[in-house]
Every structure is written in C-alpha cells, then in structure tokens.
C-alpha cells in the first residue's frame, strides 16, 4: 500500500504537467464565476385570477372549488368582496377578476333571465379570454343539466341512455360561452405582474462530470503511452495493474478538487459522496479500456490508436452525457445510447 501511494504521488506530479488539467480547471472556475455574476431575470410565476362567488347554489360552489383546486397556468383563488378584488387588481395580486352573481345557476336554464358573470380586466391583463374559457368549462356541466331538465319539462321527451352528444347539441342551441359574460375594464388600474427572479442555469455540475471522465481517459492515454515506451517491461503484472489504476486516478484527483471548489463558489447543490463514487467508477472504466487496448496484438503504437479515437468519443460524451441538452427530450433509443457515456449518470 505504501508503494501504491508513493506511485500515486509521483504520478500526480506528472499529471500537473498536463496542460489539459489546467484547461479544465480554468473552464470550471470560469463557469462558477459566471454563474455567480449572472444577473437574475424576471419571469412570470403564474397568472393569478380572483373569483368572487355571490351565488350560494351548491353547483356553483362546487365549480368554484374545482377552479381553485385545478392545475393550470391560471391560479384561481376566492376573494370575499368586490373591494378586495379591486384592491388585488390594483396591487398586482390578481391579473383578472370574475364576479359570479346571485341566482346564476337557478336562472341558467332561461337565457333571457340569466344574470351575467362580470369579468374585471385591466389594460395589461394577460389572456382574460382564456381564463374565461376555464370558468365556462367548469360551469358548463351544471348549466347543461339545468337546461336539459328545463327542456325535458317543457317538451316531455324521453332521455336517451347515451345523452352526452344530445345534451351538448341541446345546450349549444340555448347558450354560448360569450353570452354569459359582461366585460368591465378598469382603465385607471395597471396590473403589476407577479414574477420571480431567476438566473439562467450554468451547467457547472454537468461540466464537472464530463471533465472527470475526460481526466480519467487522459490518464488511460498516459498509461498506454508508457506501455508503448516500454516503461513497464521489468514490472510484474501487479505493478502494471497498479500503474493502470494510478495514472487515471492521478489525473482525476486534481479535477475532483477543482470541481468541488467550483461547485462551492457557484452554490450548486452536490454530494461529495456522489462525486467520489463517480470518480472511482470512471477510473475503473478507463483502466479497463486501457488494459484491453494494451493487451491487443497491435503493430505500432497503441496510444496512437487510442488518441485517434479519443476526440470523437469525448465529443459524443459531451453530446449524449447531458452536459448542455436536456436528456428527457431525447427519444427512448437515444436515451439508451446515452447510457454508454458515463457523464449521463453524473
């Protein structure tokens, strides 16, 4: 074990002569500094919509409850009074407001008597018509039921077993979505958009994973170069085994240190255990690759073959390792192919 650490120390000194190590260190530190210095950009968190329900009908209450609990780009929430709604619109708490009048549901079967829902907008309201469609879609089943019941009472017809399409056609003949709204614009109120400040994500973490893999492969290249120069001829198989592990490890260790420093600078969440385990895995993989190439009965320099293939493989590792692109948008076949490149798992 003492011999192992002695060789590791000597190989580490040798790895510091590799200009690629300094290049990777510079890029990681630069990315971390850029991540910290990147100005925040405001982005809309949601589109809040206030809704005031003055109708005590259970169907209306159920529809409003469903609106406030659904997942949508619109965040519906109930207010207690018109004054609260206007206050929320003025302060930017709400983007659009809906006031559901009394007896809306009770009068919904007769279009001439049905009170209209007030839609309160401001000059900068965002997509008020789309939020109106959300309200209409939740109220539609309850309106349709009242229309159907009134139509059946008046015409004394039999209800078919599958009446969904007939019900829709019947409702369309009585009512459309635009007929139930009364638009009101508050010209004196400007909506102040609720937003969150976010920074553009700089992939320091993924670059660190890619550079750890790259450093391990550079260590494997150094091992093959030593084999070509007959440096291990007098060594035992155990000694060659150690050198096959030590050289990738000597290249990876400084990159591990720089990666941790960079992640601490930019404040990115990370697990030191995950980094260490990943580093050990890439060291072992590079050792296996180097050992296979060293054992091949090739004429000429084996390091030359590895050096010729290495740039292409690194480019593929960069593309398929998820360094810049989101792997979730890849097809299942491409995601499977990405598993051939260790940065995918970092």
- Assess the beta-strand content as a share of residues: 5-15%
Largest sheet: 5 strands, mixed
Tertiary shape: elongated
The class by helix and strand makeup works out as: alpha/beta
Low-confidence stretches: none
Q: How far is it from the N-terminal to the C-terminal residue, by CA?
A: 30 Å
Summed over residues and divided by their number, the pLDDT gives a mean of 78
Determine the number of helices (DSSP H or I, runs of at least 4 residues).
11
The helix content, as a percent range, equals 55-70%
The overall strand count is 7
Strand arrangement within the widest β-sheet reads 3-2-4-5-6
SSE order, as H and E? HHEEHEHEEHHEEHHHHH
Taking all Cα atoms into account, the compactness measure Rg is 34 Å
Please explain how this structure is put together.
The chain is an alpha/beta fold and 346 residues long. It has helices spanning 2-15, 19-37, 58-69, 82-91, 128-155, 164-174, 204-228, 237-266, 272-295, 302-320, 332-338; strands at 41-44, 47-53, 74-78, 96-100, 117-121, 181-185, 195-198. The protein has a five-stranded mixed sheet, with helices on both faces. It has a two-stranded antiparallel sheet with strand order 1-7. Helix 3 (58-69) links the parallel strand 2 and strand 3. Helix 7 runs antiparallel to helix 8 and helix 7 runs antiparallel to helix 10 (302-320). The longest helix is centred in the last third of the chain and has 30 residues, at 237-266. It is elongated, with a radius of gyration of 34 Å. The chain starts with a helix and ends in an 8-residue tail after the last helix.
